[in-house]
Design goal:
The structure is a single chain. The chain is an alpha/beta fold. It has one domain: TIM Barrel (Alpha-Beta Barrel). It is built from 12 helices and 13 strands. Strand 7, helix 6 and strand 8 form a beta-alpha-beta unit. It is globular and about 50 Å long. The two termini are about 30 Å apart.
Length: about 350
């Protein structure tokens, strides 16, 4: 029986954010009662070392589904090789006004303009401390909406210092389209001015807690020239890896849809080609100098393998997980292992 398909049909009758919250609560309850492990297929081991970290397999959960770290143990039961929580900000914030999450099932896509809604970094740290999960945990950090972009570095440093002792790696999110001005941090001197202080603080924290890699998450909406410039800046600043990509502002794949005119970032199947192109362009430019994690539009095993073929060392899923459920994890791990 396709239990997830049945559950999805029921959830899709509710509003996007209501079904999201209810789904997470039920996932957590199923994990706490021991039911969840009996509903999930076994995921084969396919260990790989990336950025000095040993991952049990190459398929991870992207940031955004568990913003506050409230469901770490539940997601750990689903066979992910790594879990990334967040995006978290120094102070709690409600995010953008509702409605702000829209499903486009005919396109296997989602549009969101959540706006980094989260309970703040202190809450997330407490949740990580409570979790039993001892696998690879990434923590994705951002800035508060009301912090001026020119002062964004201070927000990232606050989050870095607080999450560093509890993370396996930290992701610097500068690519959400839903926080005004955030994406300007991806370009030129602004990127370097952000990353150099983060790198300096990383080195200081490493002396006390051991070395934790720092990744940077970028957008899919850059030109090839901009991608190449970002790649060189990441290398110059000593960043440990790059996650490509976040959601897109493009609507090319969903024109005519009921929600195509909604503001926000588009994820799911329509972003697959943009994301894969970014992964490939980055990988060629970096030429092995640092790893690329591919995310965007992975709806099946072939999509996951496509990212790997384009040069990714690891992949992450988000919208595909909403549409496919836990089966996508095992399918993607097996497809990548077969190569």
């Amino acid at each position: 029986m396709d239990w997830y398909g049945l559950a999805r049909t029921l959830f899709f009758r509710l509003s996007g954010e209501t079904s999201h919250e209810l789904g997470l609560d039920l996932l957590g309850a199923a994990q706490r009662t021991g039911l969840l492990k009996n509903l999930v297929a076994d995921v084969p081991n396919d260990p790989v070392e990336v950025a000095g970290i040993t991952f049990p397999n190459r398929v991870g959960l992207a940031a955004g589904l568990d913003k506050n770290g409230d469901y770490i143990d539940a997601f750990a039961t689903l066979g992910f090789g790594f879990i990334e929580i967040g995006t978290v900000t120094p102070r709690p914030q409600p995010g953008n006004p509702k409605p702000r999450l829209f499903r486009l099932p005919e396109h296997q896509a989602i549009i969101n303009r959540m706006g980094f809604n989260n309970k703040g970094v202190d809450h997330l740290v407490e949740q990580v401390k409570k979790a039993k999960f001892r696998g690879v945990l990434g923590i994705n950090i951002g800035k508060n909406f009301d912090t001026p972009v020119e002062k964004a570095t201070s927000d990232y440093l606050i989050c870095l210092e607080k999450v560093y002792p509890y993370a396996t790696y930290i992701t610097v999110n500068i690519s959400s389209p839903n926080t005004p001005g955030l994406r300007t941090l991806q370009y030129g001197d602004a990127l370097k001015d952000l990353l150099l202080p983060i790198k300096a603080r990383q080195k200081q924290l490493a002396e006390e807690y051991g070395y934790k890699p720092v990744f940077v998450k970028i957008a899919p909406d850059m030109t090839d020239k901009e991608i190449l410039a970002v790649a060189e800046t990441l290398v110059e600043c000593g960043i440990d890896g790059v996650i490509a990509t976040n959601t897109t502002l493009s609507r090319d794949g969903v024109l005519g849809s009921t929600f195509a005119g909604e503001a926000g970032g588009l994820s799911g199947a329509p972003v697959r080609e943009l994301s894969t192109h970014t992964v490939k362009t980055l990988s060629q430019a970096l030429n092995g100098r640092l790893p690329v994690i591919g995310v965007g539009g992975i709806l099946n095993g072939d999509d996951a393998l496509e990212k790997m073929t384009a040069g990714a060392a690891l992949v992450q899923v988000y919208s595909g997980f909403i549409y496919r459920g836990p089966a996508l994890v095992a399918e993607s791990v097996k497809a990548i292992a077969r190569g």
